[in-house]
Fold this sequence. Notes:
By secondary structure, the protein is of the alpha/beta class. The chain is 39% helix and 12% strand. Helix 4 packs across helix 8 (187-200) and helix 11 (300-308) packs across helix 13 (321-331).
Amino acid sequence: FFLPTSKMILRHALLVFIASQAYTDTATTTSVYAFSSVNSSKSTTPAYAPSASSNTNKDSLARVKQWSTSSPMVDETFDVLCKGGTVLCPTIVGYSLFALDGKEGAAKLDKVKRRENNPYGVVGSEATFSRLFSGRTAPLMKNDFCSDMFLSFVSSDSVSNEARDQLRISRAVGPSDEVAMWINSGPVFDTIIEKVEAKYEGTRYILVSSGNLSGNGNPKSSTFSIDAIDDEILARVDMVVDTPHWSDPELDENGRWYSAPMFDMDSCAFRRVGKNMETASVVLSLFHEIDVDNSQAIDLEEFKVFFKSGRIGKELANLPEEEVETMFQLIDEDGSGEIDFEEMYSFLSSNKSVSFNVKFI
């Protein structure tokens, strides 16, 4: 196999398997959500039934991406963060609050949110993810598949001791020594993250929290609008980035905006459902299907058994073992000899031409 072709064939075969598990009639046109309902018995993904339609307006997303690379407001926001201020910025799940790590940053967020004692999360880039979680591979999030995915990854086991010690000062470590990191916040804050990474050369973290008063829950509104944010938040925060949003919310049973899904890397299960849960749970369903010993990692033997079963096609089932091993290495980005959830997510979401709609599969 020529390497790019191998990637395309393997990705296509895995997506076909997902589709075939959901439907006997693969000519049916349906949304990604339907595939997520077929979960392994080991999966603890909560039941969830949002709208199947995409929440992203592609024209608006393109406009905001352009704005984020050229607007003086983005530079001003970056300056406010660097000076120890707090920022309310549009993200994929609405509007989130940010500050640089340290006692001062946490204290300022406390004042804005009227919050005490509860831990904060961290937001960052793929580089931040790898630094925080002891070199683990971050999911790639810069393509059509996940353009509207804001995921939180939480772990105790994988957090580096250096990162945990630094973040404890910011009250960004939970009661079980876990740290939560959000990735793929959206074009505006991703641009700011890049600026922070460049300025501080990977020595600082950005604290994140939902853009609402503690205890009040997320806003109730059918659109993402700054008007839905609590007046107290707007009055106390140092900087508000008020550019028209590129996306629409998914609402919970109380009509409030869903936050980001939260994935526990230690148990390989979702702690919390969130916006676009269906996309994330598709990958988890496939992961559990292959991870037969429920070790939260797919080893080469499990991968070979799945391949040889013929469940992703007779042609792939008849591949020589060395070529199956090559396929395994395509997903095992860090070369550890095991495929974790982040690597599976990254592999399935790394090609713009692939869709989870059966008609394209």
